[in-house]
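Notebook entry, structure prediction.
Reason for the run: the old model in the group folder had no record of what sequence produced it. Starting over properly, with the input documented here first.
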Amino acid sequence: MSLLLRRPRRLPRRDRAAGMKAIVLAGVGDVRVEEVEDARIVDETDAVVEVHRTAICGADLFPFHGMTPNFETGTILGHEFAGRVTEVGSAVDGVKPGQRVVCTSTISDGTCAHCRAGRPSQCLGRALFGYSGVYPRLDGGQAEYVRVPHADRCLLALPDEVDEETAIFLADILPTGYGSVTRGEVGVGDLVVVVGCGPVGLMAVLCAAKVAGTLIAVDGVAARRALATRLGAHAVAPDEAEATVADASGGLGADVVIEAAGAPAALDLALRVARGRGTVSVVGAHFEPDYPLDNALMFERELTLRFTIGDPVRDRERLLGLMAARRLEPAQIITHRLPLEAAPEAYRLFDSREATKVVLTP
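New structure, fully documented this time:
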């Protein structure tokens, strides 16, 4: 009788030939949709997810441009995805076949010193979906199916109120934008500046708009400034930023500056427009080994400089609740929806900044 009552650990997959379609990096600037080996259970803590929605992130452009050391040709890209569980390993108890889920962008083992201390983004065994080389290879979710290690930690079941297109923002960029606001210690009524209105910067705008007294967004792309305005910011071009902040602050500068562009010029600007004893919260990806930090300016103004990766494991349930209640609507920034087969065009649009956020449907 107990065998009859056990829940199924596998659902039938949709009819198709052996293998699955996936977006792979074939070389620098060369993404292709290819037939690859099926995603399958490898370890008892794994799950397999049928992907319903997946998205392109700025981090996908690093290997696309050959900037990720030792990245393996053929790696399946993508770390933002949501869908339905089709199979779980024997040790998985938190999710079950048939559930709609969203996955964290990275995996963490839950056992290392960082994980035990509540710092899963610093896990000693972490890996990023859709990456290889700098992390152990972990094929990503820009595919029809994806294998998810540590499924009980990585997968979050979705309520009926949240669809997969909205849920994909929980994988990475919404918790990252939210983290830049919380670690920047934005307070009620603060003057906040967001430098860089790509997808992560727009998520910072979305979250900061709930508490900031004055919110200024800076970007060189008119379409992205329009999105920032829609989310509640006063958007300006980079050459207008310093004068705008000075006017808004009586010459003092911003309480918190969130740098979300990941460019040295953007960080330069962020440091210049922060007030004395202000905070610069950096969420843009910086890898410059020789950035010329202006120590005199930092010292004179007593500035706090803080970097953030984002922590989906810690923040996703809180953010999911706000999304279910329609208090956060991140899908407003989606500019393009394309089928998985259109991957080369989707990457071209995103890389050229003709698209701000691209969502793909397998």
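Summary: The first strand starts at residue 20 and ends at 27.
The old model has been moved to the deprecated folder.
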